[in-house]
Amino acid sequence: MIDGVDDALLTLIVARRRLVSLAARIKQEKGVPIRDPDREREVLRRARRLGNRFGLPPASSDRLMSALIQDACRQQGLSQVSDEFVVVDTDQGALPPITGMLANTMNSQTRFSSYSRWLRLLPPPSRLSPFLRRIPIVWQVKLFEAAMQRVLSAPIEKGALEMLSDRRLGIEVSDLDLRWVVVLREGRMRVCARDEIAEATVRGTATDLMLLASRREDADTLFFQRRLVLTGDTELGLTARNLLDQLPWQEIPLGLRIAMQRGTDLALAARTAYQNRTASN
Q: Where is the Chorismate mutase domain (predicted)?
């Protein structure tokens, strides 16, 4: 019985995520702000009222609905900011008492705002590609394989990526002019020989790929806005995307999660500062 209820809950959550993506696209097309704090407050209040009718503690309904709102924010690439309610970061571990909605978290623009003068001086990643090409390929491969293994070791050991075994996936960092073809073999993610052709390829800028890897933005948003492009075997590409999107973020070591998110924030802030400088010239 409990397993059946769990399955139903997960099915409903998947349906909710699809509706969130659809709502975000409609709002973007109509120029309506995606974030609606009043709506979020009402979602929590309604959950509390319904929970009270069935004897559910307010803290339990708060945790559940806050987690769903957090998930929606990730899907839409939004900072999880609110001025009235408090919620925990469910990716960080323990759940303290909840008094309401989403806690104020420092986004990339706020965290690096005091350094905007210096960030404006940083060149875009495309200017770095000539220097990266001087790094021996063997070093690039070892570094990339080590990073993939560090991030994906837990799900690989559990067999969560078995569907990708011996399938060749391409990753292209367009502004750095970097390309790899990776494959899951013998329990490790490996970079293929340069002459092997990818069955499916994901292409995007360094910053947008970092946003995806660090869960700062949802894959649906990045692909919908054409900031990431999928070519080749679409079915394989979507399978890989869905599997990676469902991986438990909390299984990545905390220090690595923090480093990924801070690095992504810096890259995003630098890109914004550079774009602002270019627009003002």
A: 1-80
